[in-house]
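In the design runs reported in the main text, the only information available to the sequence generator was the tokenized backbone. The following block is the verbatim input for one such run; it is reproduced so that readers can re-run the procedure and compare outputs position by position.
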């Protein structure tokens, strides 16, 4: 879409330049002017003013820009502008010499531009038209859920690695462009999801928009980096966010790459998700009955105020036979402080983060079990009074040398696909619907709402936080059962939602769509207020029983703009019609002048001044 927009702008600019040149040429011919007549006389003071102003602007841009590349850019364009002005001035002075140099400069510019023009290194069109295999399960799903991409694109393209590249004799630059375009399609670089009709949290599907509130909401999702001002997640999201936020954003599919995985001493780690455990917090991970004799752990500690040797966490392995084996993780022995490098004198294995933007390393350790067992559950407890235990990955090691990496989540599972590239596809096995009912609501301002969404007491399927407004009110039916509450989507379009709800009590309907001015809601045909829910999304209070809710995007700005456009069009038509009407001298009626229409078209010669000669 951006390439099409840029091409349209360039095409429009070329049309305007051609139209202006043709107008100047026709005007000069109509006046019988020579080439120098195309350019009016130039006032020296105006020329000095324009050139001086342009020079000051270029000097300011160069002086205020610290980047050397940007300075070269401004200097180059400033120099080219001065050269063009000098050639035009030379043309006015020495027409033939100036025209020759202008033609030569234009030819040189075109030749230089063609050296780097993309069409000279065009890749086959099917690269953009063909669907990548990793996206086949997503498109076959056909749901209204979103796809979240946190994959890096600096991997080797699968067709090239597997020796299945369809154009082996193509130039090297063409092969490179082919790989870049294919990987953009695989990892769904922002905007490309529109090509496949897929929705994404940071895309343009009418849901979560890159507004100011979205950038602030990203601070909940992006835990170890700073959000980008344009709202794009893929370059800032290095680990899978909290599953509750996946539900809130309507995410069912997750795309990542093997570059986020790690390997140490032959042990693979799956760093899809991170568990950030504060003092007293626990995380339990069910395991599908894996025989193990040891556990490989990848972790680090943030902001501890503890000496080396202090216990930071406890890892408990529960076997199928009911056995319980506890493994202590101590600071400086099995893990260490998250820092750019391992502490001096430490024998811990430091593992680089999954992205160069993250500077803090993690530490790998092998924890042997007292006796081999079939593990069914792992329990992680943070036992220190301060600090955050960052549990990155865990792998079960068998007596036979086998290894089973376990992602620290049970909500998303890997999905097999036929793409040979280093791309991973995961599916959220139990996503919340894109529209659902909650029995509890709390009215909080924005800072308190963000804190509430971070807290463990927030359960998106039962509770929501509503922004203060005259129509906002709390709901406190904590004992209500939502087993029989249903929401059916009858119609969904970019500017229209129609839903049917049924509930035993009053509920808050939450929609995974951004709260934005211009949306209006009706309940059984009657207008009802829209409230801002969970900091960013839309909500409607629904009474008990069966109801039909409709949401329409009807901003007043569109109606006002349409009215102004119609008035402007009517005024333009009136002015055009008035300009086409013949103007008659005062006192002259509608009778045509003598001599017929031809005489009417002849111009009237003004009388000559001065004394006339007598014959």
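Verbatim output:
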């Amino acid at each position: 879409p951006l390439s099409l927009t840029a091409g349209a702008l360039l095409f429009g600019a070329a049309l305007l330049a051609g139209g202006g040149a043709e107008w100047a040429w026709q005007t000069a011919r109509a006046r019988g002017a020579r080439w120098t007549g195309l350019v009016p006389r130039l006032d020296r003071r105006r020329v000095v003013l324009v050139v001086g102003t342009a020079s000051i602007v270029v000097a300011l841009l160069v002086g205020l820009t610290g980047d050397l590349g940007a300075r070269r850019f401004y200097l180059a364009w400033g120099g080219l502008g001065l050269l063009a002005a000098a050639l035009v001035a030379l043309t006015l002075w020495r027409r033939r010499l100036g025209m020759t140099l202008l033609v030569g400069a234009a030819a040189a510019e075109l030749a230089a531009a063609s050296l780097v023009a993309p069409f000279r290194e065009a890749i086959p069109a099917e690269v953009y038209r063909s669907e990548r295999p990793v996206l086949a399960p997503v498109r076959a799903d056909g749901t209204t859920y979103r796809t979240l991409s946190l994959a890096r694109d600096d991997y080797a393209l699968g067709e090239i690695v597997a020796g299945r590249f369809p154009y082996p004799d193509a130039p090297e630059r063409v092969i490179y462009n082919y790989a870049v375009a294919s990987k953009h399609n695989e990892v769904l670089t922002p905007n490309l999801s529109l090509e496949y009709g897929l929705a994404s949290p940071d895309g343009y599907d009418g849901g979560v928009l890159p507004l100011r509130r979205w950038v602030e909401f990203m601070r909940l999702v992006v835990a170890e980096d700073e959000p980008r001002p344009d709202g794009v997640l893929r370059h800032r999201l290095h680990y899978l966010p909290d599953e509750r936020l996946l539900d809130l954003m309507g995410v069912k599919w997750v795309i990542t790459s093997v570059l986020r995985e790690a390997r140490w001493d032959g042990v693979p780690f799956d760093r899809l998700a991170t568990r950030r455990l504060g003092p007293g917090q626990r995380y339990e991970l069910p395991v599908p009955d894996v025989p193990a004799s040891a556990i490989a752990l990848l972790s680090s500690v943030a902001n501890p105020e503890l000496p080396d040797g202090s216990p930071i966490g406890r890892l408990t392995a529960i076997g199928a036979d009911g056995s319980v084996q506890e493994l202590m993780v101590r600071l400086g022995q099995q893990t260490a402080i998250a820092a750019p490098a391992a502490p001096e004198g430490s024998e811990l294995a430091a593992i680089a983060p999954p992205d160069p933007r993250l500077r803090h390393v993690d530490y790998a350790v092998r924890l042997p079990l007292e006796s081999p067992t079939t593990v069914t559950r792992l329990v992680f407890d943070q036992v220190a009074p301060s600090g955050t235990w960052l549990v990155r990955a865990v792998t079960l090691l068998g007596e036979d040398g086998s290894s089973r990496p376990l992602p620290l989540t049970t909500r998303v599972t890997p999905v097999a696909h036929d793409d040979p590239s280093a791309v991973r596809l995961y599916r959220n096995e139990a996503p919340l619907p894109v529209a659902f009912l909650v029995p509890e609501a709390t009215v909080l301002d924005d800072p308190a709402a963000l804190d509430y969404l971070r807290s463990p007491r927030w359960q998106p399927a039962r509770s929501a936080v509503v922004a203060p407004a005259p129509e906002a009110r709390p709901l406190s039916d904590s004992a209500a059962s939502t087993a029989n509450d249903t929401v059916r989507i009858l119609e969904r379009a970019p500017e229209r939602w129609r839903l049917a709800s049924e509930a035993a009590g009053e509920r808050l309907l939450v929609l995974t769509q951004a709260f934005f001015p211009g949306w209006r809601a009706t309940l059984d045909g009657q207008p009802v207020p829209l409230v801002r829910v969970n900091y960013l999304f839309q909500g409607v209070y629904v009474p008990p029983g069966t109801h039909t809710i409709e949401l329409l995007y009807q901003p007043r700005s569109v109606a006002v703009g349409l009215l102004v456009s119609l008035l402007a069009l009517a005024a333009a038509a009136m002015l055009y019609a008035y300009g086409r009407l013949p103007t008659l001298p005062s006192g002259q009626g509608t009778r045509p002048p003598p001599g017929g229409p031809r005489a009417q078209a002849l111009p009237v010669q003004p009388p000559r001044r001065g004394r006339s000669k007598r014959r």
